Amino acid sequence: MSCGEPHETDCSEVLDHLYEFLDSEMPPLDRDKFQHHFEECSPCLEKYGLEQAVKKLVKRCCGHDEVPTDLRAKVMGRIELIRSGQTVPEHDVTATPQDS
Fold first, then answer.
1. Average pLDDT of the residues in 15-21
2. What is the DSSP string of 55-97?
3. Model pTM?
């Protein structure tokens, strides 16, 4: 997605790293860069607001459950494969090696 306007930080970069921004998992300099982008790009700001609302809703409904570290690592690995355009295996990401 792009709003068609030139920005110091491209819309696609902002949206690719939106959850890192939402989860405060990026360096302060990058957070400042993204915040500046949201101030000048209403489509990205709208997407940020929508994702923030979904995140709050999920936290309210499911916020008491801990996500196992290995599951999080598997899911994040799969997301990275998808982002990089690589073929994603069809197997269950929650399966352990003996389950496959």
1. 91
2. HHHHHHHHTTSPPPHHHHHHHHHHHHHHHHTPPPP-S-TT--G
3. 0.56
